[in-house]
Every structure is written in C-alpha cells, then in structure tokens.
Amino acid sequence: MNKIGDIGTKYLSDVLQTNQTITELNLGQNKISDIGIQYLADALKNNKVLTIVELYYNQIGNSGAQYLYDAFKENKTLIKLNLKGNPGSYCTIVTAASEIRNDKAITKMDLCGKSIDDIGTKFLADALVNNETITELDLSVNKIGDIGTKHLSDALQTNQTITELNLGQNKISDIGIQYLVDMLRNNTTITSIDLSGNQIGDIGAKYLADALENNKTLIILSLKSHQIADTGAQQLAVALEKNKYIKSNQTSNLFRLQMALSLNSIGFSCIIFLVLLQVANGLLCYNCTDCSSVSSSTATTNSTDSGAACY
Question: What domains are defined for the chain?
C-alpha cells in the first residue's frame, strides 16, 4: 500500500495522457478519492495502450465510479477495471460491467444485494447488449425501479443469451412490468423470470397475461409477494388457457410452465385459477399458498411444496 492520493494521481494521469508503453496499472490501496479519479478518467479516455487498471480499496464513491464508467465506454482497449472494496455502490457495477464486456468465461453474474439503483442498472444494461456468454443474471435484493427495468429491458431486446433473470425484491411497479412485457414479445431465450417481492398489482398482472397468451419460451415465472388480487389472477389464468403453444405440447414433458403466486391478495379467484389451468393436463405447476381467504389445503393443489412453485 502506498499513499499516492489525489495529487499523485493527477501527476500520474498527466503522464498517461501520452504514455505508449505502460499496459498494466495497479493503484490499489492508495487513498484515491473521486477527485483523483476524475484526473485518471480523463487520461483513460485518451490512452490506447492500458489494458488493466486496478483501483481496489481506495476511497472512490459513486461520482468517481461514474467518471470511470464514462471513460470505460470510450476506451475499447481496457480489458479489466477493478474497483472492488471501494465505498461507492456503483464501483461494484462498473467492475461487473468490465467483466461482462471482456471476460468471455463468465456465464453467471450474481449481483444480489449490491444496492444497484436505476443508474447502476444502466451501466449493466449497456454492457449486456453485446454479451454472448452470460446465461444467468441475478439482480435480486437491489433498488431497481421502473426506469432501471426499462434500461434492462432495452438491452434484453438485443441480448439473446440470458435464459434466467432474477429481479426479485426490487422496486418494480406495473409500469416497469410493461417494459418487461414489451421485451418478452421479442426475446426468445429467457425461460425463467423471478419478480417476487416487487410492487406489482392487477394492472401489471394484466400486462403479463397479455404476454403469456402467446408465450412459447417462458417456463418459470415467480410473482410471489405482490398486490395481485382476484382480477389479476383471473387474467393470468385466462391467458394461459388461451395459450395455443401449451395446448399443442400437452403430451411433451419438455414444456412445463411453473408459476408461483403465493403471498398475494388473491381470494376465491385463486380456485378459479387452478381450475382453468387444468387445460394443460398437468403440464402446468402453480402455487397460491397463503393467498388471502384461501386455505392452504386448497391453494396448494398439484404443488410439490408449501410456499414455493414446483421447480
């Protein structure tokens, strides 16, 4: 560990503006703050030879991470940008964006509980557009709202690699669901979406129902712990009843739609939901455990465990 700090970073950045030989730079544990990072980011926009920059365990906040991300977008030579161990929540996201863009061995990206908000989601979305290796993306337990969901949905219109998407326990409302639904109409690779613990009501359920009516890809959909009531549940059920692909694949064990609706505000319509799903002749798994006004013995019909979809 050294004590280069912000002033030292400025001197070094001035050199990097014209340097054509240094390819790797390690400035980890040097007490560099956002001020010093701004100097470095300006240098990185012009430097065409650096491939690795280590900035772990400094004092970089969200502003510094933003400076570096802007430089990273312009600099196509940089392969690795490591901001781990810094106080800014965006630092984790910028590091992940670097990995997504350049590390072709990564197939799963776990960013659960990283305080990712809508701006951080934009960083990730930009990197995901051209990624062809990541198949599983876990963004659960974050602060992603409707705007962040739009950024992600726009990226997934193009990305055809991700098959599993976890957005559980974020701040997504019916508006964000509409963005996801628009994406699902064009995306043919996503088979599993976890939306549990967000802020989805009957309007969002209606948007999802419209998408499910013609869906040929989705296998697992978790809508646990929302404000979905009778109207929303019935719309979902009717959509599945109309799904011609499900009907045409009744004899295939390869197609099983698994849906979790437990911990919602569904009353008697949960029973209607179960009845309508019989059109799939057992190929649909569902769960309405702990829905309002429905006993668990009734709600868990054809479910393998209490409180969870039959995965």
Answer: 1-103 (3.80.10.10)
